[in-house]
Amino acid sequence: MADQIQRRKFQFKGLQASKQLTSSFMASLFQKFQEAVKVLAKSPTFAKDPRSLQFEADVNRLFLYTSYNRLGKDAVETDAEEIIDMAGKASLADQQKQVQENVHSQITSFCKYMDHILQPDLSVKDKPGTPSSENNYSPRRSGLSFAIGRTAPLKDHGAIPENKPLKRTEVSQSLKDLMGYTLKVKPSQIPHEDAGQGLFIHGEADVGTVLAVYPGVIYSPAYYRYIPGYPRVDAQNSYLITRYDGTVINAQPWGAGGESREIWDGSSLPEPKHFMQADGKGSERIWKMLSKPLDGTRLGGNHEVLERRNPLAFAHFANHPAKDMVPNVMVCPYDFPLPEKHMRVYIPNISFGNGEEANMRRFGTFWFKSWKSGKNGLDVPVLKTLVLVATRAISNEEILLNYRLSNSKQRPPWYTPVDEEEDRRRWS
């Protein structure tokens, strides 16, 4: 499907010199996509239960937004109509695959920009007395590489690859110059006292753009009991997010990043406070029986060389919109293919545990091991991450994300539902 889109782009490329698209025409195309989003999101044919319905509606929106973005300035109306038509007919699996390819294409471009900013001048590597980076850095590759075979993730970190000693602010400004936008963390404009710091885009980005990556430690359901503060993990940590597949990402240890490239193991975790006062009744008694926190140190440390100056690794600072405000991004699951070693340093996540997947079965709010093979059936090992995708053109403003907090639990006073029905379906 991606090849089909690319072929259409090349077919029309030669015509664009004499027939440039005007801004009004692009606005018209986007309006078509927005109308398709509203219609398809309400279709009863996608799923049989509310949670699956919401998941498929989200995938459908992401398919439209990211495909629209990939069309770019070379788009013609027939391209847009074809994508909308595919959104109504393509299977969920095909749409998921296309979303992954669209996001991966943007992540690949971002990594190339970061290489351009941070890679040392290799032309001087052969001069006497100049250390060579040839053995410390993998050669760059291009294109989508979802089927390039199994390759073990990087484990031997004998030395951190040579890179320019730039400050984080310098890296961020350089990325804006190359890509058109970067991110800043500063006091939120949300009018409530708990808003704290907010996430802002500095520059401009079109709809469907990957604006931010959710950093931190990734926990599969098999390792929930190792999350600090378990079982009430969110009581002292507002930087947790959950994917539809049950994967939890804890951004608290990542914080605001750093000022260098380093070997990172996610161990900078605050001591969890003892906050649960069990009364021995009802659900609390069940939690007491099933929820004994485990010591994660017994599993051994998983660590990677990561670029802590990553200007996009701030998705955890995005705030929920206040009343009468509208979100301008949505979450998108992104499975980063680990064989892409040359890009790994710019993916601000590590997996907790030994990296092996354990089959889990869900029973109510609990997950149990099924004691079967840990193979996930994928062609390549992946890192299950999340990114924020723009749902409209965005320019020099605060990034707002619909938190979709569960309506089955007590919500904080500042939370105003964007769409109560979506919240209900998400956590049904």
Automatic annotation (TrEMBL):
Can you tell which superkingdom this protein's organism belongs to?
Eukaryota
| Signal sequence residues | none
Q: Where is the composition biased (Polar residues)?
A: 130-139
InterPro entries per record: SET_dom_sf, SETD9
**Which residue stretches belong to region Disordered?**
122-142
Q: Which CDD domains match?
A: SET_SETD9
Checking PANTHER family in the record gives: C5ORF35, SET DOMAIN-CONTAINING PROTEIN
Q: What is this protein called?
A: SET domain-containing protein
Species annotation: Solanum stoloniferum
